[in-house]
Amino acid sequence: MVKFKLYFDFISNQQEQNDLFDRLIFEKEHQTSGYYNLPYDHRAIEDSINYMKHNDDIIRSLKYIVIIGIGGSSLGLKAIDTMLYHLSNRNGISIKFLEHTDPLKIQKSLDKVELKNTLFIVISKSGMTIETTSLMKYCINRYNLLESSNKKRLLVITDLDSLLDKWAKSQDIYSIKIDGNIGGRFSVLSSVGITPLMLLGYNVDFILKGARNFQDSFLRRSEEHILQKALFIANSNSTMPMNILFSYSSSFRDFNYWYVQLWGESLGKINKDSKKMGLTPISLIGSIDQHSFLQLILEGKRDKTITFLGINKDKYNDIVIPNVELSGLDSTNFVNNIPFSRLLATQQLATMSVLQEEGIPTDSIQLDLLNEENVGSLIMYYELLTSSVGCIFNINTYNQPAVERGKRFLYKMLS
User: Fold this and answer.
1) Cβ(390)–Cβ(226) under 8 Å?
2) Of 3, 141, 180, 361, which cross-links 8 as Cys (Cβ 3.0–4.6 Å)?
3) 365-408 pLDDT, tens per residue?
4) Which of 30, 112, 276, 291 is catalytic?
5) Secondary structure of residue 98 in the 3-state scheme
6) Whole-prediction pTM value?
7) From the candidates 265, 372, 373, 383, which is the catalytic residue?
8) Beta bridge partners of residue 123, listed in sequence order
9) 16 catalytic per annotation
10) Among 6-10, 139-143, 379-383, where is mean pLDDT lowest?
């Protein structure tokens, strides 16, 4: 179960909420983005199962999976694996991400990786993302992946009939296709995420079930907090343009990175009235960032809203702070014999309380367990929230024209 609570004063305007809901239904029905359909579509699971059946000899030998992709092609997958890595059904395969053109990072990521026990998965909607194709070329050259005996060590996940898909077909390399109207940052519930997650042993049916159940609940108008939060932060964007996700577990670190891309790339746009729109996402991890950012939030400019993300401490086995008394440090003894999870949860509560006392808008998301179903719900929550704000801003939430401009400049400078 995932619980949501708004702590700011929301002046209820039912007509605004109804209008916003209708715009989201319009997007869904007119296939503005295909992500709405992913929790109900079994194609990703079927394609993954078919791949695994046809490549059982490769799967059984796996020690490493190397993901070659950037941004939406890797962040969602990395976020889910980091959140669920503790589960007993997660197998021992090590997953590595080639998403950076830093040569030092490339060498470090591929250290100890051998062809005989590795699957390279190239993920790109078109194959024209220069970082991805450059890294793919490096791996092809380093591991001789185009030799006939090695081609089964390479898997491509891309749009149907993309240039990358056509190249894979010409080279007799296995290719899994996704629909073209699913943007990269909204694609984690497609084969982009489902196939690698299945290879890692996760129950992907439960991930999709969590997303499906949450979207169904939203469609029944049982998740009005999404519409209320979207209206509040979108209508306050001129005075509070920064949105902080303050997550109280290191398991959420990569989820925070996924949120930053989803929020920033989706909402930073020029709207239909030629007005520049956007909300700046900020990623914080508690309790670490209480000591680096809380001062700014409390006594700096009041231009931020904060979402707290946490896990129910009572559901996890824990280690306890020992009853050790240190001379001269007696004032720290009040935490002796307290579980670390209770300390972390109390730190979150204390931070929330002091912010609310100062009148800073906050809301919270609390997971009772960090499992596949709850993670699916969390993914769908943020995708629906992003779409809601995009509708209010009157923008195209799903394109990225400024990113494409940057790619064109890179081409000119290196050509």
Assistant:
1) no
2) 361
3) 999 999 999 999 999 999 999 999 999 999 999 987 766 676 67
4) 291
5) strand
6) 0.94
7) 265
8) 157
9) no
10) 6-10
